[in-house]
Specification:
homodimer; about 350 residues; alpha/beta; eleven-stranded mixed sheet; 13 helices; about 50% helix
Chain lengths: ~350, ~350
């Protein structure tokens, strides 16, 4: 991270706000020198919290906001009525240019609505998409959309592919990311018409995109591709299904080790190794779903995360800002549209 | 299992046919006395194989079939051209009434096409659906559709709910199965219009169905409900995503135990317990996706399974037949349609 970056933080969003937000900011500040924060929320609560972290306090400005968007608030209420909420004010700071990005652990629907209406999409992007990284057999990959758009057409999917490719380059550091389109079979004739159309357009595109073709559900954890492109319904179900299986396996494993005194002893001996296993799948490591395609960086932290997870969500925002994520997307979209530009008019003879 | 049951087996389908089919039949025959088989395939290969299992040979009739449907054959070719294939002949035996059900580890698309065209759907069922059981934190559940129908309307989903409920009663032995509709959020306004319509119809139905409402991806492995209802696209992606994560976790665990001599020792001590863990998630235990909604029982075994997995697939067919699965579905559908019958005409005054 070369130059100074200013991030707006919704200090009141999430199950353990504002403590987790302030402690997460403190951890991120140590990791990324040059990072500064605008902290939006209840000043009476934030000031004493912040005073516990001297150095962070020097890099942070508290901006008082009267209201808090509850986790079960309807997005339309958050948008139209709660004009002085901590989340709204943090999003406004990105729109005004005071901050390069915003991180919130609050209400997902409200953040999405505010970001779309206030910050707006990049030129050439019809709809923003939620993206997140996850562990695979080959390292890690990114999947989008994870729930911002329940139904998507071929054009949306192509745009998601472009955004995912840039994300894999800038945040995951892949030189030439490989893109896959999630389907129910790898054969070309499988799936819906919009999937087939999106595949044709990605194959024919002259973008510097490595398009692998269709992939299936098992390819997600296998790491067959670096970027999994899908609609928000399927992506959301796949992500949550994977989370559920991870919890199930962890439970089974715990029960297995408890079966006898000998197996408990085995657990004690293998504990350092099992910690490594646990670290590899630690959900905090993969915290921070990013709303891609906006005129600014918007990262949603899991509402129930701790300060380490929140610091990781801040890290995702920092990577995207310092790597010029949005400028790169805009460049690629220009090229994409140049591909589809009409042929020069010819004179009919 | 009270009375004699005759099953048609496609002896030539699957990666390890016909060995796995014959050995699987032998194992199933021991588990279910009174089970008899029609074995369709290449007699020259089947006769010597079968002669190794004297008792099985006494309960089995070989029916020679000249052709084999390759695993990559197009369903339309399997249907129109390969009229003397082992799979076709086995499906025909269900249609003619010689067998109560068919089990095949062969080409899924071909089996689906043959079953739909030859055996046909039950009265009141528009489309058959693939169902399978899977392990959860509370035991096991069933999910459908897993890929027979890429796009489904509300009526299809309601029919899947009825079939899934009867499956959970007859195969899983649940007294009063709880049904959930897979969505991206539990709130009533989430998801597509067809999901909302299906939910309303299931809530209002006077069927003896315990409808829980919407569930999310993580609820699958948590076992929140006994039956997960979804379209074939989403179900297929969810199932394969879960399989991929299971493999990833197993790999991570293996790598963890290999990290040091001490952790290897820990593994040795915990091995009996870890075997129990492995048994709980053994994919062979959950082998046998059933094509529900047909005038006969059709079970698809995984193509790469061993004889234990194939015997389990046979077990699913036996449970469905001996519990009168199809008669129960027909009963419930009658009641469902009675719910929707027009009100008796009243005289306008």
């Amino acid at each position: 991270m070369a130059k100074e970056i200013v991030l707006a933080l919704d200090a009141m969003g999430g199950d353990y706000a504002p403590e987790v937000v302030v402690r997460g900011a403190n951890l991120a500040r140590i990791r990324y020198p040059g990072l500064r924060f605008l902290l939006f929320g209840d000043e009476a609560r934030l000031a004493p919290l912040l005073s516990r972290f001297k150095r962070l306090a020097g890099d942070t400005e508290i901006r008082h906001a009267d209201e808090v968007i509850a986790s079960d608030e309807k997005p339309v209420v958050a948008l139209r009525q709660l004009r002085d909420s901590s989340m709204r004010r943090a999003v406004d700071a990105v729109h005004s240019g005071e901050a390069a990005g915003v991180v919130s652990a609050g209400n997902t629907g409200a953040l999405m609505a505010l970001a779309k209406v206030v910050i707006k999409t990049l030129p050439g992007i019809s709809r923003p998409a939620f993206a997140s990284t996850f562990p695979t057999q080959r390292g890690e990959s990114v999947m989008l959309d994870l729930g911002a758009n329940i139904e998507c057409d071929a054009e949306n999917l192509v745009q998601f592919a472009v955004m995912g490719e840039v994300f894999a380059r800038t945040v995951l550091g892949r030189q030439r990311p490989i893109i896959g389109l999630l389907n129910v079979g790898a054969e070309e004739l499988k799936g819906t018409e919009r999937l087939q159309e999106a595949a044709i357009r990605l194959h024919e595109s002259e973008l510097p995109i490595e398009f692998h073709g269709f992939v299936e559900g098992n390819d997600i954890a296998e790491g067959t591709v670096d970027v999994i492109v899908t609609d928000g319904f399927t992506g959301n179900v796949a992500l949550k299904t994977a989370e559920g299986v991870a919890v199930l396996y962890t439970e089974y494993l715990r029960a297995a080790f408890r079966r006898s005194i000998i197996s408990r002893l085995g657990y004690l001996l293998a504990r350092p190794a099992l910690r490594h296993f646990r670290d590899r799948v630690d959900p905090r490591r993969y915290n921070g779903a990013t709303l891609l395609g906006l005129n600014g960086v918007v990262v949603k932290s899991h509402g129930g995360t701790d300060h380490k997870g929140f610091a990781n969500a801040i890290g995702v925002a920092v990577d995207m800002i310092s790597e010029g994520f949005n400028a790169k997307i805009t460049d690629e979209l220009h090229r994409l549209h140049a591909d589809h530009a009409p042929e020069p008019a010819t004179v009919a003879l």
